[in-house]
Amino acid sequence: MASPIHLQIKSMYTDFSPKEQAIADYILENPSKVSHSSISDLAAELGIADSTFFQFTKTLGFSGFKDFKLALLKQENDLSAVTIHENIQKNDSELVMAQKVFDSNIKTLTDTKKLLNEEDLNAAVKIISASRRLYFFGVGGSEIVATDAYHKFLRSPIPVGHSTDYHIQLMEASLLTEADCAIVISHSGKSKETIHIANAAKKSGAKVIVVTSQANSPLAKLGDVVFISISEEIEFRSEALASRIAQLSIIDSLYVILMFHNRESAQETITKVREVILGLKENKTD
After folding, report:
1. Which of 56, 80, 200, 219 is surrounded by the fewest CB atoms within 10 Å?
2. Domain that holds residue 13
3. How far is residue 229's CA from residue 112's CA, in Å, rounded to a whole number?
4. Residue 104 falls within a domain, yes or no?
5. Which residues form the SIS domain (predicted)?
């Protein structure tokens, strides 16, 4: 199933030119009007040529304006609900502020869920299952997601690795082989450090799975499989922090699918981990 248009636009937004961003903003803010207007009327409203709007629809992957408009009409109900409780107001109570944060997180998960497809999930899990080693890479805020993934996949039957230090991550990536897999996480997909890591992993022959919020980012173009997380930015909290929740859920999904596909060996690993942790708890005296 095709991704909702507003999610396509958001995942590609940072790569648009200023004129394309103006068109994108207009579509996101006026989906119903766009779906019921002619290309000439829209172009006149935006002060651009018909051909500019036409080319924008081609950039989104449509054959032209008619194809774009038909898809938009089908998705109009979804698009009308793009803006929900995102902005915290000065007079909001503490409870309302918290509820709006929860609402934003829920929307982040819902939007990201819509972008998932079975082909990518199957491909990623097959790569991971066939890997001799699995390494997680992330810098800055994305390192938190990579660490969480490492902690989780330690319970899987696949040997895993992760370092919090960028230079060590870069060295680890360079030492991977064709039998290994790298999962590289970056919200923007434009971090030079993360791109260096992904390039090193690709050069070593390893398969690369990318988790990012930008579908057309340099990092996404390096991935054998790419997962897109969608998030909304609200005041006092960056979009990158919101995307972390979606990225964690993507990693959780890969972990659960992997464990179900390898139930017997996965159960052995889980049992070993539980036994050693339980031993620590039983020996605790304070």
Report:
1. 80
2. 5-79
3. 5
4. no
5. 124-264
